[in-house]
């Protein structure tokens, strides 16, 4: 009979296993990461937890959630600079 190797990775954080002060600090750290622009999916992936769990933790931590789907504004098109009148004048003569 072969046995599977045991995982030596760090155990996933469980907020239930933390003291109230530790839990508050942990949730504040998650909220800080979210406020700095990291997405819920990125946070969830980095700590090895499901999206819904991280969303619930952020909610408990008092995070102000961003609107879904990103910005609805259309990006400003990037074009070449507006030509000056000197570049419009034909200097070769008529």
Termini distance? 95 Å
Q: What is the H/E string?
A: HHHH
- β-strand number: 0
Task: Note the beta-strand portion.
Answer: under 5%
Mean pLDDT: 78
- Percent of residues in helical segments? 40-55%
Oligomerization: single chain
Question: Which shape, going by the Cα principal axes?
Answer: elongated
Q: What is the radius of gyration computed over CA atoms, rounded to a whole number of angstroms? A: 26 Å
Structural class given helices, strands, pairing?
Answer: mainly alpha
Main sheet, how many strands, which sense, barrel? none
Number of helix segments?
4
Low-confidence stretches: none
Description:
The protein is mostly helical and 94 residues long. Helix content is 40%, strand content 0%. The chain has helices at residues 20-35, 40-47, 51-60, 85-88. Helix 2 packs across helix 3. The radius of gyration is 26 Å and the shape is elongated.
Summary, kept brief:
This protein is mostly helical and about 90 residues long.
């Amino acid at each position: 009979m072969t046995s599977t190797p045991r995982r030596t990775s760090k155990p996933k954080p469980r907020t239930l296993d933390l003291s109230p002060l530790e839990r508050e600090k942990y949730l504040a750290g998650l909220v800080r990461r979210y406020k700095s622009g990291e997405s819920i999916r990125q946070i969830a992936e980095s700590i090895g937890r499901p999206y819904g769990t991280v969303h619930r933790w952020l909610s408990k931590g008092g995070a102000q959630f961003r609107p879904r789907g990103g910005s609805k504004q259309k990006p400003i098109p990037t074009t070449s600079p507006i030509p000056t009148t000197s570049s419009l004048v034909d200097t070769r003569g008529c």
